[in-house]
Design a protein that fits this description.
single chain, about 20% strand
Length: about 280
Amino acid sequence: MAHSCLPIIDSKLAFSFPAASKTASYGLPRCNSVADFCGYFSIGRSNWPSLSAISSTVNHCCKGSISLFHSPKPLTYSSNSPASMSTAATGLAADASTAFHGECYVVGDNIDTDQIIPAEYLTLVPSKPDEYEKLGSYALIGLPSSYETRFIEAGATKSRFKIVIAGDNFGCGSSREHAPVALGASGVAVVVAESYARIFFRNSVATGEIYPLESEGRLCEECRTGDLVTIELTGSQSKLVNHTSGKEYNLKPIGDAGPVIEAGGIFAYARKTGMIPSRDA
């Protein structure tokens, strides 16, 4: 869906942290900017803090105001506002199940962000619904001609493929946030890759556009474009079922990134859990 205030990282955000941070005692590194804070959430599962640690970080670091350049009104954060990260607060039970079903589109190794969305389309502004839709129409347009099946048919704005299956190092190259946004705008819900470029993974979680799931093997060699698949996500075990081949594969759990993506991105998640007030507050 289109974001009225896309949580784009780097220079497009004004996010105020105090010079002295108390994050060390909560299992997180010192964060002096939103890029530092979001940058900590990398592909390595061991790098992800607990949800309570995220809450503590925001409570102790986000003093003063948080404002977004694209926001219709500034957001303010009160350090006195509790931010419980319990299951009740997130609305996501630990054993809750989420499923995605549809045809898959298979790509190989080292699919970079130029192939996902070429630089010439980065002038499109995702916070504008018409430009968000147009951005999606160019998703994966940079793939070489060896990919005979087009990800999006000529003249269409959405892809019939809801799931992308990839090899190693998906999303490498430049750190453009438009890459996961373009995939989400095209209708993709999930990417399953053997591994990801760290910044692409981070941007996928921060924007909440797609679920970047990791396979336990080379599914890009097990599945073919057009196969009908189902992905089931649970707190303890995730799997991909290929109905075309009749095979089933285990996926690595998404961990604490799941509730952030489910909420619609890092700022939507912060509002939902009370770390920052909602726009209606």
